[in-house]
Amino acid sequence: MTMDLQAKIDHLSRPESYPEETPVVEMVTTHMSCVFLTACHAYKLKKPVRYSFLDFSTIEARHRDCLEEVRLNRRLAPDVYLAVEPLAADPGGALQVGGRGRPLDWLVKMRRLPRALMLDQRIRDGDVPERLVEAFTRALVAFYERTPVEPLGPDAYRQRLAEDIQGHARELSDPRYGISLDAVQAIVAVCTAVLHSDRRLFEARVTAGRIVEGHGDLRPEHVWVGPPPLFIDCLEFNRRFRVVDPADELAYLALECEYAGAPQVGELILDSYRNATGDHPPARLVHFHKACRALLRAKLSIWHLQDHHGEATEKWRRRTAQYLALAERYAARL
């Protein structure tokens, strides 16, 4: 399986493998996929991996997920997600992108967006004017307002949040990582206590019809400021993770802006949401979601130690520590 995947990566890393002309091919890897960037397009190849929350171990499963990724992302980026194309083998065994032979795997084909207009790049450039934030927040509000309310009861919603917190704690407490158990347990204890002591806060969000099927992974690198604003790379592989309160999803985006060094952008996003909707999530609720999301990001960061060695591990340990510090900061406000 490993050799098979490497053969696909080798093929997709060569410019001559694509139907369009491209001088170079850049590759970006994650736990679950490899993305190949040509001059005009991006092609995503799913890795044949299996975790507790997803299963890409068969070509059929990867094909289904590719189709789902295109369907879901067209909600917020309709002209970016172009097609699902086969990586096929011709009669001689040569691989072809979009070929008519036997499919050996499947690729999500996307239009490549100019990097300079991604929110994370604008933050690095120090160029995020208020009008820009208001424009993309209004686009998100319109999306949330046209999305059906989820039929999820208050107790079930709180139970999901509790399960997520405990799941983050289990991973971060793995002795392989050497993370302070006291720090993790202190954050978890505070967040869990809020779920019980402030249960009416969460129940009010459910009864007000705030829980919808959102983006699921709303971070600055997934926001193209436009015009028009577009939101890419939603979390397609597990619907449960997309069922959220917009206050949670926007608190996540605000947290990631803070992590990127622009807390003022995050606050402006939340203010723009309040002004556009008249919905004013209490500060305590926002702090709770930021603390939980920081725990999630710490968990995802430390997972990279499974794929990296040497100097790269220090990068991910440092990132884990930074997210845990953010989680502690917001837990302290609770």
Architecture overview:
A hairpin with a 3-residue loop joins strand 2 and strand 3. The model has no long low-confidence stretch (mean pLDDT 95). It is globular, with a radius of gyration of 21 Å. It has a six-stranded antiparallel beta sheet, with helices on both faces. A two-stranded antiparallel sheet has the order 4-5. Strands 9-12 form a two-stranded antiparallel sheet. The chain has 334 residues and is an alpha+beta fold.
Care to give the gist of this entry?
With 334 residues, the protein is α+β, with helices and mostly antiparallel strands. 50% of the residues lie in helices and 15% in strands. The chain has helices at 2-12, 59-73, 119-125, 130-146, 154-172, 181-197, 199-207, 246-259, 263-277, 283-303, 311-332; strands at 26-29, 33-37, 41-46, 50-51, 54-55, 81-89, 95-97, 102-111, 212-213, 223-224, 230-231, 243-244.
